Amino acid sequence: MPAKPWPYVTPGIPDELFERLPGIPMSQREIRLLLLSHLRLCPDSVLWDIGAGTGTIPVETGLLCPNGKIIAIERDSDVADLVRRNCQKFGVSNVQVIEGSAPECLVGLPQAPDRVCLEGGRDLREILAAVWPRLRKQGRVVATASTLESLYAISESLSELQARNIEVVQSAVNRLETRGSRQLFAAIDPIFVLSGEKFG
């Protein structure tokens, strides 16, 4: 039986262990850890990951929540297949990949989430407005923003939805990299992570 590519219970799978496609975004390890901490997962959490990309969040949450259910939503069929391959590589069996565009495809999802992860997307306001009625009470939404426009759209939407315990964190992470014969610290692109809870 082949060795597992990540045999640990600790999250933070190295980026290079994931299969990738050119041009498809991937949450880098340090950002992923920040997202996971803000999701505040339980062993049986139901997570919607909207815009799953490479599938790093579904893989990590699938491993962390063995009794949970992860719905990975991706509009591109090739990228959806990439998520499936990465789940298979890491032995994750509790991820269901849905091919479709949010917010339209959210209507037919059978299980209401108690956690939602939203990374990027063009219709942030519309997606959050569609997610909120389906989100269980005391559920959490975690979203990332890399531009001032997306930061404003998410923060204003969370306020309009009357989310509680809103938090905003900006990452500032540097990695030691080898370039030629020298080692230097290279900055990872700063990302805002916003989170809020539903109580009503």
Strand order of the largest sheet: 3-2-1-4-5-9-6
Low-pLDDT stretches: none
Count of runs of 4 or more consecutive helical residues: 5
Give a quick account of the main beta sheet: strands, pairing sense, barrel closure: 7 strands, mixed
Terminus-to-terminus distance: 49 Å
CATH class: Alpha Beta
Q: Decide which structural class fits the backbone.
A: alpha/beta
Helix content: 25-40%
Radius of gyration: 17 Å
Mean of residue pLDDT? 93
How much of the residues is beta strand, in percent? 25-35%
Would you give the CATH topology? Rossmann fold
By CATH, the superfamily comes out as Vaccinia Virus protein VP39
Fold topology:
Blueprint (H helix, E strand, L loop, with lengths): L28 H11 L6 E5 L5 H9 L4 E6 L2 H13 L5 E5 L15 E5 L4 H11 L5 E6 L2 H13 L3 E7 L3 E6 L2 E6 L4 E6 L3
Helix pairs in contact: 4-5
Report on this model:
This protein is α/β, with parallel strands linked by helices and 200 residues long. Helix content is 28%, strand content 26%. It has one domain (27-197): 3-Layer(aba) Sandwich (Rossmann fold), CATH 3.40.50. It has a 7-stranded mixed beta sheet with strand order 3-2-1-4-5-9-6, with helices on both faces. It has a two-stranded antiparallel ribbon with strand order 7-8. Strand 1 (46-50), helix 2 and strand 2 form a beta-alpha-beta unit. The longest helix has 13 residues, at 77-89. The relative contact order is 0.15.
